[in-house]
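<tokenise_the_fold>
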Amino acid sequence: MAVHILFCQICIAIITLPIHILYMLGLWNPLAKKWLPYLLNRVTKTYNKYMKDYKRELFSNLNDFKGPSGDLKVLELGCGTGANFQFYPSGCTVTCVDPNPNFRTYLNKSLAENDHVHFQDFLIAPGENMPQVASGSMDVVVCTLVLCSVENVDGILAEIHRVLKPGGAYYFLEHVTADPSSWNYFFQIILDPTWRHIGDGCKLTKKTWKYLETSKFSDVKYKHVLAPFKWSPVRPHIYGYAIK
């Protein structure tokens, strides 16, 4: 089996050889950061169409974490194009964080389409280091489809834990590794080396739930589901929330 996997990986690498050459020359990442927002803006519409029921369930109890004044302060980490705004409760205040400033145009468009959300700020920062956000200042942190591309998952979870108020919640939805006995896993393995470049570091075979289970959060609730994407390497997902 290992020989078959290696052969398939080599075939994929040959087909996508220009990407690998640009990566080795240090030219691919700057290009990817410019076109990734455009690509995600198109993909997000289809993703939300198929995942809307999961997202509605996930965010259904956001208001349970309102502060004493009745406000709900949300920090969206890796906000991207603002794909989650439509699922947020009316009147919540959202601060957006993303290391890629090229998302700003699409983020503004999404905010204009979701005027029930009160926009606070857009911060350019990695999730592992957000000094602009005060400790214990947020009721909720939302981070979806981000941990797949993060090298230091423990670091980003620690930073999320820091900025949350005591009793606050971290909401997540991530694609993860498939069952090792499945064809889905086979395709994840052979695509992974190239997928990382296309997806700005995205890894298909990450066991994200393992990081959550060993994090500082007092309670972690999540479900494993198969997204309704036929023949997609990102079908396996987890979603849920964790309490500080």
Notes: The chain has a mean pLDDT of 91. The helical segments are 2-15, 17-24, 28-58, 104-113, 153-163, 183-198, 208-213. DSSP finds seven helices and seven strands in the chain. The two ends are 43 Å apart (CA to CA).
